């Protein structure tokens, strides 16, 4: 099981000077879309590449921009966030497409604009066709959302995936829809020779129950954002946290490195756990 550290671009400058390496990273186009200086963008991508030993995946950031349908009060991400840009959705896709064409060499995979709940799934499928024509679909992770898709659609999505990599949404407590049947989704993906990613699915109970190929979390960066952190000491059904609060940037940075080490060990733990249980994934 691979654990992606999300928002890696936010700390890449600091981490590029450290000896600790992250295994896998999630970055967001939302961040890069705000850069006006292309040289800065390249530098950040280069720094991320230099501190990651495994895979780098770029999320579209679309849920950050287009999280709510005002007339319905609907939030695709499960939070009551308002749209943060005046940019239209088609314009956003075009900018994302251009980014992928120019800088795709820095990425192992990227996530599609999975906002079919807002714009309709036909729109998302149209974007997939554009990605295919541009030769980019082979790195695209397509996404399943149960509110607008059924299991037949998910299996079709697995069969049509050129990257052999699909993703499913994580728990959405604010929408109270309950936990998805991840076991069935994982079985369908494996049957179709597809890797499967669980968004924001790093709760120990979930990792012990569901053998995803990969998951992601931004919790590793909490020490830099909030000054508070819980360093993971043990894994499995129980969690033992060392609660800390650090005021200085240097102190937070030092603890951030310990966080990365802890998440690397966490990845090893769950990879070995599922190997013992007879579930292994191939990278290709």
Account of the protein in words:
41% of the residues lie in helices and 17% in strands. The protein contains twelve helices and twelve strands. With 284 residues, it is α/β, with parallel strands linked by helices. The protein has helices spanning 12-15, 29-32, 38-51, 62-65, 89-103, 116-119, 121-133, 151-160, 182-191, 204-209, 222-226, 249-276, and strands at 2-6, 24-28, 56-59, 68-69, 74-75, 109-111, 140-144, 165-168, 195-198, 214-217, 228-232, 241-245. Residues 68-83 and 233-243 have low confidence and may be disordered. The protein has an eight-stranded parallel β-barrel. The protein has a two-stranded antiparallel sheet with strand order 4-5. A two-stranded antiparallel sheet has the order 11-12. Strand 9 (195-198), helix 10 (204-209) and strand 10 (214-217) form a beta-alpha-beta unit. The chain is globular, with a radius of gyration of 19 Å. It has one domain: TIM Barrel, CATH 3.20.20.
Structural topology:
Layout: E1 2-6, H1 12-15, E2 24-28, H2 29-32, H3 38-51, E3 56-59, H4 62-65, E4 68-69, E5 74-75, H5 89-103, E6 109-111, H6 116-119, H7 121-133, E7 140-144, H8 151-160, E8 165-168, H9 182-191, E9 195-198, H10 204-209, E10 214-217, H11 222-226, E11 228-232, E12 241-245, H12 249-276
Parallel strand pairs: 1-2, 1-10, 2-3, 3-6, 6-7, 7-8, 8-9, 9-10
Antiparallel strand pairs: 4-5, 11-12
């Amino acid at each position: 099981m691979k654990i992606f550290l999300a928002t890696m671009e936010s700390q890449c400058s600091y981490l590029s000077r450290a000896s600790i390496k992250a295994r896998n990273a999630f970055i967001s186009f939302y961040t890069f879309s705000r850069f006006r200086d292309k040289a800065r963008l390249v530098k950040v991508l280069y720094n991320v590449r230099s501190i990651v030993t495994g895979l780098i995946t770029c999320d579209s950031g679309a849920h950050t921009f287009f999280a709510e349908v005002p007339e319905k009060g609907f939030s695709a991400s499960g939070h009551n966030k308002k749209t943060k840009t005046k940019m239209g959705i088609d314009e956003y896709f075009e900018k994302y497409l251009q980014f992928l064409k120019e800088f795709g060499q820095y990425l192992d995979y990227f996530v599609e604009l999975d906002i079919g709940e807002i714009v309709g799934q036909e729109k998302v499928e149209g974007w997939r066709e554009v990605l295919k024509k541009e030769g980019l679909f082979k790195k695209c992770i397509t996404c399943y959302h149960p509110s607008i898709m059924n299991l037949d659609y998910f299996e079709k999505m697995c069969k049509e995936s050129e990257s052999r990599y699909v993703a499913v949404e994580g728990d959405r407590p604010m929408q109270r829809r309950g936990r998805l049947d991840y076991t069935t989704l994982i079985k369908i993906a494996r049957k179709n020779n597809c890797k499967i990613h669980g968004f924001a699915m790093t709760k120990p109970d979930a990792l012990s129950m569901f053998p995803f190929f990969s998951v992601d979390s931004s919790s590793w960066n909490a020490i830099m954002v909030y000054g508070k952190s819980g360093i993971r000491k043990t894994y499995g059904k129980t969690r033992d946290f060392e609660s800390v609060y650090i005021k200085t940037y240097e102190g937070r940075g030092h603890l951030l490195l310990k966080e990365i080490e802890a998440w690397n060990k966490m990845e090893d733990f769950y990879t070995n756990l599922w190997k013992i249980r007879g579930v292994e994934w191939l990278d290709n």
